[in-house]
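so my prof wants the structure for this chain in the tokens format not the other one, which i didnt know existed until like an hour ago. anyway here's the sequence
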Amino acid sequence: MGFLSQDAAALVALKGRDNTKPFLKAVASFKELQNLQRVPLKYRSLVRHARKTTFILQENAYRVINNHPHKNLIKLYGWLYSTSANESTKGYDENFCRSGADIIIEDANGFFSSNPSSLIKLTSSKHKKLR
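here's what i got, hopefully its the right format
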């Protein structure tokens, strides 16, 4: 469950979040990620085939959405900022989520809280799992 937008300021205001904390960019394909950020050759297969994993590349965070209901929405925009659908530092609240969204995309599973994605920092020489 999460919010998607190309307007970082709107997400900051909605969530009550520190505006210095960057959002991750969700893309619908590895090719689109390569248009935004060069992925070191030795990590391309890892990034291309990862599921529910966020990668930090040169201080920017990205996630390739391979098979999720909102992939088609992301394709329309090229990329979207992505963040959890809760107020900053608070747990999931379906009422907050519904009231903060302009468009709601809900699949057969309905709304639910899930574990955060894995987080891996990539550099040209090494990678480090942060979460």
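also thought this was worth mentioning. Residues 8-15 form the longest helix (8 residues).
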